[in-house]
Each structure stands twice: as structure tokens, then as C-alpha cells.
Amino acid sequence: MFKLVYSCLALATAATATAGETAAGCEAQDGQRPVCSFQNPEDLAPLPGGEALLVSEYGAMEGGRSGGLALFDLIRDERHTLFRGGDAQGPARAGWGDPTCPSPPPADFSPHGIDLARRNDGALVLAVVQHGTRESIELFEVLERAEEADEAGAQGAPTPAWTVEWRGCVIPPEGAWLNEVLVLRDGSLMTSHMMPRVSEEALFEARAPGWVWRWTPDGGFEQVAGASARLANGIELSPDETTLFLNSSMGDGLQRIDLASGEVTGRATLGSLDNSTWAPDGKLLVALLLAEDEESFAVCSALKSGPCPIPFQIVAVDPETMETAVRFDSRGSPMGAGTVGLQVGDELFIGSFAGDRILRVDLDAVATAP
User: Fold this and answer.
1) Helices in the chain by DSSP H: which ranges?
2) In whole angstroms, how large is the CA radius of gyration of the chain?
């Protein structure tokens, strides 16, 4: 939600860290196991095969603090750095974003929302909203390593099975304040513009709506009809790409929007929403922060390690009826401020805009806990 204001200082990590190298207070409890080797893991995306996640390690909305992209190996419980600002060499590749993309991401690369999708041409695309130096959507190709490379790495430090290669970017209109991004099968993009830019002091009083843009190579950026919300945040598409689900962090709840007509066809009245993901059972999992006051978020401003204590829920929404049910409830320990809930198998993986950990939740265990 208000992660753009209260970006928390998190524990810096090495290129590879394991669950054995944990921060204080990183003990499992009641089917919840934190993995404490990350920097502000604000958004998550599942890789094919169900054995690894891509992680957006958030920096800061206004620059001045860099972040990066990491891989979370679920089998080995390991974090690997995939990309930091300055890693890429230009120029951009044809067919990836805007041909006028000026250069690779800057050294103060600061990722925010991410999305992973396979285009019609077969390429596996990672789109990343980033705020360092320039407001942009950076495009990466996700590649699986050859087996021989992985075997060679196994003789020394573990080698991640996946890599990312920067391919291009899209620069939004001046004044854009982006949050989340989606990759469509035809290679076009959708992104949420939170609201007109205001000072940090004015953010909690701001009420001007944001919206959703669609970008196409031929037409550039155009607003999506009907997609408007105060502090527009997480967005998700139906599998057939005909329906948009838009989250608001300032009281407008979750909206279901028909893309052909621009009509809002359903709503779920919820509080301060962040990111959404699809669950295996077809429900939409939405992260819901349970604090909206400035004081609660200020607690995280001095955080150097450990979790932000803001309570949260992961709520399952039926996309047809818009009925809701709480799938996971946290009172802030062993991790708070959940901004994304991603289900892989029988586990729920939860990231946060603040702190050093991703929470692994055994759904069977928490369902049977007293």
C-alpha cells in the first residue's frame, strides 16, 4: 500500500544466502517458516516447474536506494542474485519494448511490481516496474541454464537454474507513478498508475484517482476504459485476457472490469489492497494490509532487519461471484506487511515491501491449527 512512502531499510545480502544464515527472530511457528535472506521482497512470480520464484527486491519509490532481482530456489531454500543495476549492456533488442528505449537500467535500479508471462512467440518475459533515475518498465528474457552449466556450478557455489537478460524498456508519460505491470500474450503491457505525484507529506491526504494504462508497440500508452481507483495498485487479468481485476489501496476495494466495454461488472469491498495472484483453485489471492494510519507505517522507516509488524491477510476472491474468504491471517509475526501471496502446491509464499524475509506457509498446517 503506502510502501512508496515508508520504504524500509532491509538487511543487505550476499549473492547467495541460505535459510541457515538467518537474522534474529527468524524462527518458524505454527506452520509458518520465514526465510530471512532477502531485501524487501515486494513482489513474487513463479517460474515454470514450481521449483523457484522470481523476487522483486524493492528499493525506493523516489530513488536513492537500489534494489534488485533475485531467484528463490524452493528446493534448496536459497536466494541467488539475478540482476542489479549496471549489470546489463545495451543496446535494446528489437521487438522488446519501445525502439526508442535509451539505455539499460541505471545503477540505482529499484524494482517494484513484476510479472512473468510467455508471449505468443515463445519468449518467457519478465516485466519490471522500476523507479531508479527514470520511471520505466524494464523487460527481461528469462532463460533456463543448460544442464552442464548447472553441474559445473555444483562443484563450487550453487548455480541458479535460471538467468535473466535485459532486452529493452518502455518509458511511460511524464509524471507517471507506476506500481504493478502485466505482460499480455501479444507482447503488449498493462500497468497501474497510482495517482498524480504528490509529496510524501501529502500522500495520506491525497484522494485523486489513479488508473490503468495499456501499452502497445504501435499505439503507445492509452488509458484502459473504466479502470480507475484511488492509489491504483495490484492488477491481474483473467486467463482469457478479457477481464481486468484492479486493486485500490485507498478504500475502493477490488473491481472487476470488462475490457471490451469498460464496465465495472463486480466489486469486493475490502480495505487497503496490494498485489493479486491466481491460485491453483481458480481463486484470486489478494494481499490486504490491516493498517492505514501513518503511525503504523512509520514503524518500518527505521527497520534494518527483521519484519515490519503490520498485520495483514491473504484473501481469496471468487472471480465469478466476488465472494471473499480469508485464506491466511497474520498478526505481524513472524512476518508482517504482506504485499503478495503466491500459492505453489500446498504452500503459500508471502512477500513484503519491508524487511528481510519471505514467509513460507504450510496451508495444511495452518488450516488444522487450533
Assistant:
1) 147-154, 294-298, 363-368
2) 19
Distance of CA 35 to the CA centre of its chain: 17
DSSP state, residue 29: B
Residue 146's Cα: distance from chain center in Å? Answer: 27
Instruction: Please state, as a whole number, how many other Cβ atoms lie within 10 Å of the Cβ of residue 10.
Output: 29
Picking from 76, 275, 266, the residue whose alpha carbon sits closest to that of residue 161 is 76
Q: 161-216 pLDDT, tens per residue?
A: 899 999 999 999 999 999 999 999 999 999 999 988 765 555 666 667 899 999 99
| Grid cell digits, residue 152 | 559445473
> Whole-angstrom Cα distance, residue 123 to residue 117?
8
Q: Convert the pLDDT of each residue in 234-271 to its tens digit.
A: 999 999 999 999 999 988 899 999 999 999 999 999 99
C-alpha to C-alpha distance for 333 and 26, rounded to whole angstroms: 10
| Measured CA distances, 147 to 48, 125, 223 (Å) | 16, 21, 44
Q: Assess contact for 340 and 287: CB atoms under 8 A.
A: yes
Alpha-carbon gap, residue 285 to 299, rounded angstroms: 26
How far apart (Å, rounded) are the C-alpha atoms in residues 59 and 74?
23
Per-residue CA distances from 198 to 109, 205, 208 (Å) = 22, 10, 10
Q: What is the mean pLDDT of residues 33-37?
A: 95
Q: Which domains does the chain possess?
A: 2-368 (2.120.10.30)
* Chain CA centroid to CA 256, Å: 20
CA dihedral over 84, 85, 87, 91, signed as positive or negative = positive
Residue 311 to residue 330: CA distance in whole angstroms: 6
Whether residue 302 contacts residue 9, with contact meaning beta carbons closer than 8 Å, is answered with yes
